[in-house]
Amino acid sequence: MDALASLLYEVRSEGALFSRNILTPPWSVRFADRTPLSLVTVLRGSGWIVPGDDAPPVELGPGDVAIVVGREPFTIADTADENLRTAPLYVVGPDHCTSADGQEISEDVVLGLRTCGNDRGGSAVMLTGSYQVGGRVSERLLSALPRVLVVRSGGTPGPILELTAVEVSRDDPASRPSSTGSWTCCCCPPCGSGSPARRPIRPGGTERSATPSRAGPCG
User: Fold this and answer.
1) What is the pLDDT of residues 191-216, one digit of tens each?
2) Among residues 53, 58, 134, 188, which one has the fewest Cβ atoms lying within 10 Å of its Cβ?
3) Per-residue pLDDT for 143 more than 50?
4) Beta strand pairing call for 148-151 and 65-69
5) What pLDDT shows up at residue 40?
6) CB–CB of 107/10 below 8 Å?
7) What whole-number distance in Å separates Cα of residue 216 and Cα of residue 93?
8) What is the dihedral of CA 62, 68, 178, 23, to 10 degrees?
């Protein structure tokens, strides 16, 4: 297996914190939980990952899955234009969410268990998963991947993502989504459909080979 397949194979057994975000423009959300690996997918609408360090924003459409590598904070927003981008609606930290100025978030932002946003009927719905992969996964595997890697879906979320969305949104504090491990399979070429639309794409549109060489603070 290549670095991506090896990494995702390991994280499936490590567990993660998941959340659902329902948003109406203008919006942005900051992720500063310092986890080494995050997954982001858009179920409805679109969004842009802003990786930081002057790297260009990366667009996500319905069903696309992004792998964000590294502990540095990143932002997801409704626009790639820095001049139009609003301050974060909330900031996802290691243990809880805060406002952009570090205050407790208002009750209006908490839309349900594992769900935050600014509008229950928002035009954008995205799922996020933060993975603690230290220990069993070597730094060599993480360093072999780019900051952001996107698996394009062709515009339609697959059944695994839809099932994951249902489980993440369950109104049961004791429940743990059981299909979220399969979410990582959407990103792994050996586990995916093998079609070009399911192959990981680096920012800028360059395909990686599909040949082989895993509840959130706001909830």
Assistant:
1) 443 333 344 444 444 333 222 223 55
2) 53
3) yes
4) antiparallel
5) 92
6) no
7) 10
8) -50
Give yes or no for a contact between 77 and 85, defined as CB atoms under 8 angstroms apart.
yes
The residue extents of the domains of the chain are 3-207
Q: Are 112 and 171 in contact (CB under 8 A)?
A: yes
Q: How far is CA 148 from the centre of its chain?
A: 10
Distance, CA of 101 to chain centre: 23
Residue 189's closest CA among 43, 7, 46? 7
d(CA 206, CA 203): 7
pLDDT in tens, 85-119: 999 999 998 878 899 998 988 888 998 877 899 99
Residue pair 27/87 in contact (Cβ under 8 Å)? The answer is: no
Measured between alpha carbons, how far is 183 from 163 in angstroms, rounded to an integer?
A: 9
Report d(CA 52, CA 70) in Å as an integer: 11
Could you tell me the two tokens for 80?
């790639």
What is the reported pTM? 0.73
Q: Across the chain, what does the average pLDDT equal?
A: 74
From CA 183, how far away is CA 23, in angstroms rounded? 22
